[in-house]
Design a protein that fits this description.
Layout (H helix, E strand, L loop, with lengths): L1 H28 L4 H18 L7 H20 L9 H20 L5 H10 L7 H20 L1 H9 L8 H42 L3 H26 L3 H22 L7
Length: 270
């Protein structure tokens, strides 16, 4: 069992590490579905590469997917300022719906269409290789280092309380673009649903439990790691797809926590 699950578990550690950080921004900005939308836009890019005859794990498919994710980043960065007229979530929802429909249309005449859509939703985390884990860890470390260096600018855009960057639109684009790089790599490994869960559920748990960025990150990482281990073990024991099982495990853990929180009177733990 250890040999089978060690690499899926390690990739979960890598995914949780970067997604909890971005989840902190997403929850605070109130753009919950931006991850789902960007993931779906990136998936549309890989779908088109697939239809052109390229393997889903090829470099060409990756760059197709990345190009579409960056296009989504441009759209989301330049539509933030319409927030006063309509919620940006409306634009994000439209991008998701159109991308999902376009992907379904694109594979509707392909004999492998149904299997491809399933792959886009839940990925294939059980077949991840050591090389993929290493490459993903390197990419996410670079993205994390970029955000660490310019943390004050990104924090001012998300949390306020500091001097906003002079070129706000550019830094918004850089936020969404770096987010798009992460989502493109993640969707290729674990699918749209698991990417969304890694981003939102640990951050929601942390936001309900504590205050402060550092505590938020630590609790989010702990929740993500526990959920990943439990989900993978459950998947092994009951022989179900690991991606879907992890999604349901995260949901069950959050539901259990919500019930306990109600019993405790909704108090912040720390």
């Amino acid at each position: 069992m250890f040999d089978l699950l060690v690499w899926p578990l390690l990739i979960c550690v890598v995914l949780v590490g970067i997604h909890v950080y971005f989840g902190l921004h997403v929850i605070k900005r109130g753009i919950i579905f931006v991850d789902l939308s960007l993931a779906q836009v990136a998936a549309l890019g890989s779908t088109l590469a697939f239809l052109l005859g390229f393997e889903l794990d090829s470099s060409v498919a990756y760059f197709f997917s990345l190009a579409f994710a960056l296009l989504g980043a441009v759209i989301f960065a330049f539509t933030r300022e319409i927030e006063g007229k309509i919620p940006q979530e409306a634009i994000i929802g439209i991008a998701y719906a159109v991308s999902a429909a376009a992907a379904i249309m694109a594979v509707s005449h392909s004999p492998e269409g149904a299997e491809h859509i399933k792959y886009l939703l839940i990925g294939s985390i059980l077949t991840v290789t050591p090389l993929v884990v290493l490459k993903t860890a390197v990419v996410y470390t670079l993205v994390g280092a970029f955000h660490w260096i310019y943390f004050r600018k990104f924090a001012a855009l998300t949390f306020g309380g500091g001097d906003l960057p002079k070129n706000r639109r550019l830094w918004d684009f850089l936020f969404y673009a770096s987010f798009g790089v992460v989502v493109t790599s993640s969707v290729k490994i674990c699918g749209v649903l698991l990417v969304f869960i890694f981003l939102v559920v640990p951050s929601v748990f942390a936001a309900l439990t504590t205050n402060g960025i550092a505590k938020h990150l630590i609790l989010g990482w702990m929740f993500g790691l526990v959920g990943s281990v439990l989900g993978l073990l459950l998947s092994f024991w009951i022989d179900t797809p690991p991606g879907a099982t992890i999604v349901c495990t995260f949901g069950a853990m959050l539901l259990l926590f919500g019930g306990l929180r109600l019993v405790m009177g909704g108090r912040t733990v720390c």
